[in-house]
Amino acid sequence: MVMIPQEHKKHLQDEFTGKLEAPVRLIVFTQELECPYCAQTRTLIQELAALSDKISVEVYDFLADSEKAKAYGVDKVPAVAVVGAKDYGLRFYGLPYGYEFETLLEAITIASRGKADVSEETRAKLRSITVPAHIQVFVTLTCPYCPSVASLAYKFALENDLIKADVIDVSEFPHLGQKYAVMGVPKTVINEKIEFVGAVPEETFLEHVLLAARRPEYIL
After folding, report:
1. Which residue from 4, 20, 155, 156 has the least number of CB within 10 angstroms?
2. Residue 214: predicted pLDDT
3. Residues 129 and 96 in one domain
4. Whole-prediction pTM value?
5. Cα distance between residue 4 and residue 44, in whole Å
6. Are 111 and 84 in contact (CB under 8 A)?
């Protein structure tokens, strides 16, 4: 099964050549049994990595390599950890396809550059956070508004090691949709308590992250 159409590969090669600076590792966690999208996710990531010598792939079995999964904080599959010069805490759960393919490309780019495209004011406020902030952005592959929020979550995580960002295709993990009452996407949940629905500007997203970081009862 080919996941990336041939006519798109040249465009992606050119894009990677222009944007990527340092090497990026795409670490895939898969499990063939009872994981219908694991094979597609692995194939997609391997096809993508073949388009640039700055992208490498590592594939692990979620059960057989449970210690590795634990080390990366991966608790469900399929999962992709995007790692640059260090692990910035960028995770995608599900098959990063459809509109979310752009989210994956954004994660690869910022991990390679080691710097996010945010305002200096936002960067300073993010770096002032001194407590853990776990951002979960619930998306679907058919949502055109989801990538902008998912990309912001990744950018925020890049700026502070205490911030982790998970982008989750809720259609692949319906139990999480029920747990977090996901009635519309994108839905963002921070430290299990602070949440909002819809695409928001950088400043508004930042306010929610700062609120989660300021309030002791919202700290994990």
Report:
1. 4
2. 85
3. no
4. 0.96
5. 7
6. yes
Do residues 156 and 150 lie in contact, with contact meaning Cβ atoms separated by under 8 Å? no
Q: In residues, how long is the chain?
A: 220
Q: What are phi and psi of 135, to 5 degrees?
A: -100, 130
From CA 218, how far away is CA 13, in angstroms rounded?
A: 42
What amino acid is encoded at 210 in this protein? L
Q: What is the pLDDT of residues 122-176, one digit of tens each?
A: 999 999 999 999 999 999 999 999 999 999 999 999 999 999 999 999 999 999 9
Last residue of a domain, one of 56, 83, 113: 113
Tell me if 126 sits within 8 A of 161, measured CB to CB. Answer: no
Asked, for residue 188, whether it belongs to a domain, the answer is: yes
Two tokens at 197? Answer: 């629905």
- Please name which of 48, 45, 114, 33 lies closest in space to residue 79, comparing C-alpha atoms: 45
Domain extent, residue 174, equals: 120-215
Whether 9 has a pLDDT exceeding 90, the answer reads yes
Q: What is the CATH number of the domain that holds 45?
A: 3.40.30.10
Domain total for the chain?
Answer: 2
**For residue 36, what pLDDT band results from cuts at 50, 70 and 90?**
confident
